[in-house]
């Protein structure tokens, strides 16, 4: 048992745990994982969590820097480039765009997957798209009308 957290298990937070991956106090088994705000009934080892590389920062060499980037980082001549910093959701958008559909499907089929929660966390909208009626032609009382969107 380590003296620091009084845990004998691995990757625990809290105190007096002997099971692995626990959060709390006096646990002796491995807990099931919550995903999308619900318990899965599965342990971490029973879930295949897909990997995604999130490019939060990126080095851009001087030759490929835009004029705007050069203006924003006058030290680029010394460093021969600049670092682009992105928000978490910007990084998700870039990474998601690069994934093949088979990889995206691994996220979409995770236990308890919830498109609204995924959107709130990642900024990626994977929910069902409402089909647009714009441009469709309908016939009413023998007359044809082309639909447009009204605000």
Would you give an account of this structure?
With 151 residues, this protein is an alpha+beta fold. It is 25% helix and 19% strand. It has 5 helices and 8 strands. The protein has helices at 67-72, 76-79, 88-98, 101-108, 115-122, and strands at residues 13-15, 23-25, 34-35, 38-39, 57-61, 81-85, 137-140, 143-146. A two-stranded parallel sheet has the order 1-2. It has a two-stranded antiparallel sheet with strand order 3-4. A two-stranded antiparallel sheet has the order 5-6. A hairpin with a 2-residue loop joins β3 and β4 (38-39). The radius of gyration is 25 Å and the shape is flat. The chain starts with 12 loop residues before the first strand and ends in a 5-residue tail after the last strand. The model has no long low-confidence stretch (mean pLDDT 85).
SSE arrangement:
Layout: E1 13-15, E2 23-25, E3 34-35, E4 38-39, E5 57-61, H1 67-72, H2 76-79, E6 81-85, H3 88-98, H4 101-108, H5 115-122, E7 137-140, E8 143-146
Parallel strand pairs: 1-2
Antiparallel strand pairs: 3-4, 5-6, 7-8
């Amino acid at each position: 048992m380590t003296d620091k957290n009084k845990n004998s298990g691995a990757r625990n937070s809290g105190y007096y745990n002997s099971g692995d991956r626990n959060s709390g106090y006096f646990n002796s088994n491995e807990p099931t994982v919550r995903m999308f705000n619900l318990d899965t009934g599965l342990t971490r080892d029973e879930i295949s969590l897909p990997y995604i590389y999130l490019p939060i920062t990126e080095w851009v060499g001087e030759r490929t820097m835009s004029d705007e980037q050069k203006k924003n980082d006058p030290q680029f001549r010394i460093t021969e480039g600049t670092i682009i910093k992105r928000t978490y959701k910007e990084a998700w958008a870039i990474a998601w765009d690069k994934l093949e559909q088979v990889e995206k499907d691994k996220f979409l089929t995770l236990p308890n997957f919830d498109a609204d929660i995924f959107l709130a966390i990642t900024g990626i909208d994977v929910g069902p798209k409402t089909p647009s009626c714009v441009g469709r032609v309908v016939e009413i009382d023998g007359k044809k009308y082309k639909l447009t969107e009204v605000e």
